[in-house]
Design brief:
Blueprint (H helix, E strand, L loop, with lengths): L7 E6 L19 E2 L2 E2 H12 L4 E5 L3 H7 L6 E4 L13 E5 L2 E2 L5 H11 L2 E6 L11 E6 L2 E7 L8 E9 L1 H4 L24 H10 L4 E5 L4 E2 L3 H17 L11 E2 L4 E2 L3 E2 L5 E2 L4 E2 L3 E3 L4 E2 L4 E2 L3 E3 L4 E2 L4 E2 L4 E2 L4 E2 L4 E6 L4 E2 L4 E6 L4 E2 L4 E2 L12 E2 L2 E2 L8 E3 L10 E2 L4 E2 L4 E2 L4 E2 L8 E2 L19
Parallel strand pairs: 1-4, 1-6, 4-5, 8-12, 14-17, 15-18, 16-19, 17-20, 18-21, 19-22, 20-23, 21-24, 22-25, 23-26, 24-27, 25-27, 26-28, 27-29, 28-30, 29-34, 31-35, 34-36, 35-38, 37-39
Antiparallel strand pairs: 2-3, 6-11, 7-13, 8-11, 9-10, 9-11, 32-33
Length: 453
Amino acid sequence: MDIGNKLEAIVFASKKYDSLFPFDLYWQAACLPVANQNNIVAIVSSLKGLGFKTVHVVIGYRQEQVKALLSGFDEVVYHQGDRLPPELLAKPLLVIDGAVYSDPSLLSGLVEKHLESGSSVLSVRPKDEYNRSIDGFGIKLADDRVAKMFGHARDHYIDYLANGIYLLDPKVLSLQDSTDLGLEYVPSGGMPPLTFYVEAMIQKALELGEPFEYVVDPSAINLRFPWNLFLANQKAAQKICGAIKEDDLGEGTTVAENILKYAPIKTGKNCLIRDNVIIRGPVVLGDNVTIESGAILEGDNIIGSNSFVKDYAKLVKGTVLGNRCRVGFNAELGGLYFDDVSAIHSLEIYGIMGKSVDIAAGCTVGFMRFDDSEHLPRVNGKTFRGKYANAVCVGDYTRMGIMNFFHPGVRVGANCSLGPGAIIENDVPHGTLVRVKQEQEYRSWSTDRYGWQ
C-alpha cells in the first residue's frame, strides 16, 4: 500500500522499564527480538512497506541500540522527549509504541480504516485472564464507536484494551498543547504520574466529541514484561512455521535420507541435518545451521544462523534459538534464547536466556510449583500475572555453574555468576555472585570397614 504524503508515522522507543528485568540493563524494550528479528526493525520495515518515506522515532534510554539497529534504513528521523514533535501535527499521524509486538501485516488494516472513515482509529485487543484492564489503557464502546478511554480502570469500565497503536487526526493532535499531564479518567486513588500521555489527549478529544473508530488486533503483546516476550516469540514462531507448506531447502543444504520428518522444513544456505534427526513439526533454520544425529525438533522451532544442535538434544515446541547458539548433547531446551547462548550437555532449561548466557552442564529449571499454582511476579511491589510467568529468565552475559537448580519464575540479572550447585530460589540482582558454602565432614576410612581379614 502506497500512502504517499497523506500520513506521518512515529515510533516511541525511549523509556526504560523496570518491569523488563532482567533484560532492562542491556535492552531498549522496542529492540527486543521476536522470532530473531528486533521488534523495532519489524515495525519500521512494515511502515516502509506501507509507503511511509520518512519514519520518525522518539529515542531516550539505549538510544545507541535503536540507532544501530535502524542504521540500514533511509530517512529515519530521531526525536527526544515524551511529546509529539510539533512539525508532525498537521497531518494524520500513526503513533506506535515500539514496546508492543503486533503482527506487522495488521498495521495496514489500521491505515485502511482511517482512509475509509476519515476518523482517528485505535488498535485494541480483547481482555483475557492475563491482560487485565487495571494494568493499562482501555476503551468503552457505544453504538460500536469509541465513547471513552480509561487508564488502569476496573474491568467493567472497558470493552477492549488499547494496544498503544493509534492513528490520530489533526483535530486530535491539535489538543496536545492544551492537554495536562497525567490522566483524567482513572480509578479513584489511581495515582497517575505527572507525565504526558498520548492517551490523555485521546481522552480529551473524545470529551469534545471527536469521532474515533477501532480495529481489533488480538496479536498485540506488551513487551515490557519478560513473560510477554516469551509469549510473543511463541506466537510469532507458530505463525512463521505454520506458513511453510512444503520443504524449502537453501543452496548447499544437506539432509540425511534416514531422518524422521513429519512436517515441512525451511532452511537457509549450507545447513546440515544428520542421521536419525526427528522433526515433529515445521521448523525454520537460518544459514549454516547443523543438527546432529538423533536430535529432536518438536516443531514451530526457529533456529538462527551459525547455530548447532548436538546429538540427542531436544527443542520443545515453540522454542526460538538466536544466532550462533550452541546446544550440547542430551540438552533439552524450551522458550527463547538470544544470540550466542551456549547450553552445555545434560541439562533441562525452560525460559528466556539473554545474549551470551553460559548454561553449564546439569542445570535444571523447575517449571511447576509444589501446589501446581502459577508464579505471580512482583514489580515495584505490584503483583502481575502472565501465561509464562513460571518460566525462568536470565539476563545477558550471566554464567551458570554446574548443577544449578532454578525455582519456577525466578529472574537472574545480567552479568551474574552462579556457583556450582547453587539453588536459585529468589530473584538475583544484576552483577551478583552467588556462591554455595558447603559444610563438609571428614573422617577416617579404610578397608577394615568392609570386614576383610
